[in-house]
């Protein structure tokens, strides 16, 4: 059997990839985070599939479920919200499977920041304005941030910063980024991106924290801060420039 770590996407059930949906439909066991993965996706599972909500399970219990399925000869769909490559906690699961000799594959998904950018109708990399995107989070009661990855340090780059799991700490975000970006720097928050209850908040570093509090946003949101969010006057990309040399076959 094989464990498939599948990116379920940012929330809307139809934003899972074709490969993800096909893989899900072929697995006899599905482990999913009930608090994050849309229930509609479970309809893609075979009618007789064993469904396990991992929202209340710890790593040992999740691993035990994966090993049980392996011993019973079932392929397993391990559904994670967004894309498994960032903030998904799959690394420790894959390490456990490596130690147990259980094969696995990763099926990418649409990450939350991409869905948020789509909702904002913004390209995050704009010619002459910004060509770098930093995906990060803030230190809280969970895993500490490594040395040199605090917001005050990352903010020195001036790059567009995308913060996951940070809505509750908006005041701290503003305090650490304000010296590098300025009070007038565009900022935005997208909560529940791609879902029916999606909420978009636009502002600047000067007022975004207050707007987040007023809206009551605490979780399932990304915060974006950077000049590309408000860029209007910029040079066209060289990609489609008439000055670019193009060769025909």
UniProtKB/TrEMBL annotation:
Pathway: Cofactor biosynthesis; adenosylcobalamin biosynthesis. Residues 2-208 form the Tetrapyrrole methylase domain. GO terms for molecular function: precorrin-4 C11-methyltransferase activity. Coiled coil: none annotated. It is an enzyme of class 2 (transferase). One of its GO terms (biological process) is methylation. Keywords: Cobalamin biosynthesis, Methyltransferase, S-adenosyl-L-methionine, Transferase. SUPFAM superfamilies: Tetrapyrrole methylase. PROSITE patterns: SUMT_1, SUMT_2. CDD domains: Precorrin-4_C11-MT. Its EC number is 2.1.1.133. NCBIfam families: cobM_cbiF (TIGR01465). Belongs to the precorrin methyltransferase family. This is Precorrin-4 C(11)-methyltransferase. It comes from Streptomyces chlorus.
């Amino acid at each position: 059997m094989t464990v498939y770590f599948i990116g379920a996407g940012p929330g809307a059930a139809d934003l899972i990839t074709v490969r993800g949906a096909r893989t899900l439909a072929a697995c006899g066991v599905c482990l999913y985070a009930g608090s994050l993965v849309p229930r509609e996706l479970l309809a893609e599972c075979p009618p007789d599939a064993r469904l396990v909500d991992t929202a209340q399970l710890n790593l040992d219990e999740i691993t035990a479920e994966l090993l049980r399925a392996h011993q019973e000869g079932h392929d397993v769909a391990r559904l994670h919200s967004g894309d498994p490559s960032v903030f998904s906690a799959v690394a420790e699961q894959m390490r456990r499977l490596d130690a147990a000799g259980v094969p696995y594959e990763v099926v990418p998904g649409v990450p939350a920041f991409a869905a948020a950018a789509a909702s904002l109708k913004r390209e995050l990399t704009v010619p002459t304005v910004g060509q770098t995107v930093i995906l990060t989070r803030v230190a809280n009661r969970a895993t500490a941030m490594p040395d040199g990855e605090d917001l005050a340090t990352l903010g020195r780059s001036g790059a567009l910063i995308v913060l996951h799991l940070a809505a509750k700490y908006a005041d701290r975000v503003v305090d650490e980024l304000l010296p590098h970006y300025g009070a007038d720097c565009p900022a935005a928050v997208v909560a529940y991106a791609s879902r029916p209850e999606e909420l978009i908040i636009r502002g600047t570093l000067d007022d975004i924290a207050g707007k987040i509090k007023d809206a009551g946003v605490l979780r399932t949101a990304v915060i974006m801060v950077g000049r590309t969010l408000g860029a209007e006057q910029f040079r066209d990309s060289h990609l489609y420039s008439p000055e670019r040399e193009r060769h025909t076959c």
